[in-house]
Protein: Glycine/D-amino acid oxidase-like deaminating enzyme
Organism: Promicromonospora sukumoe
Amino acid sequence: MNLSRKEMLRLIGTGAGAVALGSAATSPAAGSERGGPRDIVRDVVVIGGGAAGTYAAIRLRELGQSVVVVERDGRLGGHTQTYTDPASGSTLDIGVVVWHDQPLVRKWFERFDIPLRKASFGGGVTRYADYRTGREVQGYVPPNPGAALALYGEQLARFPYLEYGFDLPDPVPADLLLPFGDFVRRYGLDDVVPSVVQFGQGLGDLLRQPTLYVMKNFGSDILRNLQTGFLSTERRNNSELYQKALAELGDDVLLNSRVVSTERDGGRYASVRVDTPAGRRTIRAQKVLVTIPPLLGNLGGFDLDGLERQLFGQFRHSAYYTGILRDSGIPDDVSVRNIGLDTPYHVPQLPGVYVISPAGVPGLHNIKFGSPTALSDRAVQDEIRASMRRLRDAGTIPTARTDFATFASHTPFELTVPAAAVRAGFYRRLATLQGRNRTFYSGAAFHTHDSSLIWQFTETLLPRVVAS
Ligand SMILES: Cc1cc2nc3c(=O)[nH]c(=O)nc-3n(C[C@H](O)[C@H](O)[C@H](O)COP(=O)(O)OP(=O)(O)OC[C@H]3O[C@@H](n4cnc5c(N)ncnc54)[C@H](O)[C@@H]3O)c2cc1C
């Protein structure tokens, strides 16, 4: 690895006010215990620097806490990902695209001086094809969701607590545990399904998921924003948020780093040993805020106790992939959306492509692909190539070139547990982990896959983190 001295200093946290012995600590406690030269002493160590972790780190500093973020990748942002087209210099958001129009979101972007605008969707021509055969589904027109959305909104109003975390009543209402397909049938919500599919990309087999997860993902604030308009960045570069946050956090972010071991019980500090590109460091922090997907395989090195292991071991996850196709042969103003010719509500068969849509730059198309379970990048790319060939052979598109300008796996994506586990109190027990073993949790697994709502959830959690 070729690093400049400045980069090196940032990674190991030896720039101004970074490491050790509380030199940068903003709270008296942080510097009150001495450590070795490779120790980093902070109030809070944040694991993961995506939507939840970045928000938490900045806000915790504002609340007077010293922090350090441990991030596996070489950047902050997680599922927020921006591709820069080398030919035009245009930036294209291929991960997170929109945010809710709400005060917290506006304030968050204003803080970094990033202008927002109302997001615009669509434009151009949408064609519908069954990607299993490649044939265009002639005459298909998606149902007008208006009346069904109103009915769906009435259903959502029965479960207001879904807007914040998984604070579910006991017993959990049986309707929330129904497979979503059954819920749709019971309440005559057929015409809402295509909208739910569009927003619920990445959720896996949507009609089989417990209704709980679908309603959390496609919730009341989404319905409100469908009417008032979502927000996106004026400069079409959502990663700017995370670049600016990284610049501000500076030495308090350890990129390309991973947790090797933790000791969270006993003593006055949690010890978190981390491998960084500049060697192993020990972080000693009063509190640990975990914002990464809490799967056992992703928590290697954590000293999980029995309850943590038992709960995290129950999570299953779906898979979601994105990319940009160059010169695919699909006209620049055409989207080809996958629907099932003979599937219930024409839900696309997964694993499969959700949609190939114009990226906003001539010759480039965005592609979204979903699967109920994880696949290798290779398998996904092969299936995309095969889909393109089927579309071409069926005459739906003129040619079938599959040159990936970029490709990314966003897997694991949605973390779920079976309905029976929810019924048996999984989320009640999960909530008891907040604050246990000096550890707090935020991120999609603790609310839903929605950056704005995750920021809101995190904001509400932070006073507890600070006070503990
Ligand atoms: C293609 C796509 C489009 C989306 N569109 C939207 C949208 O338009 N609007 C919206 O609000 N939401 C959207 N989402 C959902 C949104 O991105 C997520 O809800 C949000 O990013 C989740 O935040 P998080 O902090 O839980 O996880 P992430 O943002 O994924 O952050 C987790 C971070 O932890 C890091 N990490 C993981 N494991 C480890 C480890 N072991 N050690 C250290 N670091 C680790 C990851 O690298 C990552 O940076 C989209 C998601 C995808 C994939």
Remarks:
- Residues 377-393 form the longest helix (17 residues).
- The longest strand covers residues 279-290.
